[in-house]
Amino acid sequence: MKAIAVYEDGDEPVLMEKPRPEPSGGEALIRTLRVGVDGTDHEVIAGEHGGTPEGEDHIVLGHEAIGVVEDPNDTPFEVGDLVVPTVRRPPNGANEYFARGEPDMAPSGRYHERGIEGDHGFMSEYFTSPAEYLVPVPRELVELGFLVEPASIAEKAIEHTVASRSAFHWEPESAVVLGNGSLGLLTLAILGDTFDRRYCLGRRDRPDPTIDVIESLGATYINSNETPVSGIPAAYEAVDFVFEATGHAPHAFECIEALAPNGAAALLGVPGDWTFEIDGGKLHRELVLHNKALVGSVNSGYDHFEAAVESLSRLPRGYLDDLVTGVYPVEEFEAAFVDDDTTIKTAVEFGRYEER
Ligand code: NAP
Ligand code: BGC
Ligand code: ZN
Questions:
Q1: pTM of the entire structure?
Q2: Of 41, 178, 253, 350, which one has the fewest beta carbons inside 10 Å?
Q3: In angstroms, what is the span from residue 101 Cα to ligand 2's centroid?
C-alpha cells in the first residue's frame, strides 16, 4: 500500500510502498479516506518535534485521519463504519494514564503519538487500531472528519482553561485567539458558542483569505504588526479568555497583559528553545494581583474527540469548507504540504467513501 513518510535524516515527505497491516486481536483494519496536515506535521518533517519509531529510519506521517472500517475483526464495529482515530498509544503495554482514559495527561516517555512521536501515523491506504482508540463519526462528516482531531485539541484546552475558573463566578464575554493558522481558525469558530465578542490575531496584511474567514464569523482581525498582544486592551479591550495558537513564545507571556482581571489563557504552541527578555516581575505581579491563569494544554482524550464531533456537526458547513483550501489525491501529496499565505487547511485523500 501507499504511505507518506519522512526519513529520519530527510526534510521532506516521500511516497513509499509498505505492506498492508494485519489487525491483531482487539484491533480493526481501517481504510483511510482523508488525513489532514497541520503545523505539527511541518515541525515533524523539519525534525523539530517528535521522532521515528524505535529501530526504524522513517515515520509514516499523519495524525488527523478519518477512515472507514474495512475489517472489524473481533471489535464491536461493522464494515462501513466511519471512524476517527485518537493519537496517543501506550509505548510498552498499558499504563495508568491510558487505564484512566487520560492519555493526554501522560508525561513524556509514557506515550507514543501516531505520526508524530515513536509510532507510525495514518497517512497510508490502511491502518489498524485497537477499537478503544476509534471514535465513531456520523455520515455528514465523511468529508470533513479530518478536522475532528484538531477540533478535539481546542475542546480539551477550552475545557481545562474554563475549569481553572470554576472556583468562582466567572461570566466570560470576550476571547482572543492568537494565530490564524488552522488550529486558531477552527477554535475561533468553536468559541462562538460561548463568547459574545471574538478577536483573532495574525501578522498578515489584507487581502488575505484567513482575514476573510475571521470576518465571516463576525470576529475582529488584529494585525500583530500594528497591535502587539500586550496592546490589545488599549486598542480593543482586555479579554476574558486567550487561546494561544501561534507557537510564538513571547505570546505566552504578553498574553498576561491582554487578559482582563480573573481571565485565563490556554497555551497551545510548541516552540523550540528561545531566549528573550520579559519583565518577569511585572507579569508575575499581574498574574497574582488579578487572579489570572495560564494553562498549558497538549493532545486530547476520547471525550474531547466526541465533543469535537458535536461541535463540527453544529458549525456552519460553509465556514468549514472555506477553511479547507485543498484536498489532494495521494499521487499529488506534495501540494498538501505547501505552507504559504494561500493555504489554510489541507488534506491528502487516500480513498473515497462508498455508500453501501
Ligand atoms: P500554523 O498553521 O503554523 O499556525 C500558526 C499561525 O500563527 C500562523 O498562521 C502564523 O502566521 C501565526 N503566527 C505566528 N507567529 C505570529 C506572530 N508573531 N504574530 C501573529 N501571528 C503569528 O499551526 P497550527 O497547526 O495552526 O498550530 C498552531 C500551533 O499550535 C503550532 O505551534 C502547533 O505546533 C501547535 N499545536 C499544538 C497542539 C497541542 O496539542 N498543544 C495541537 C496542534 C497544534 P503566518 O501563517 O502568517 O506565518
Ligand atoms: C497533535 C496532538 C499532539 C501534539 C504534540 C498536535 O499537533 O494534534 O495530538 O499531542 O501535536 O505532539
Ligand atoms: Zn495536530
A1: 0.98
A2: 253
A3: 17
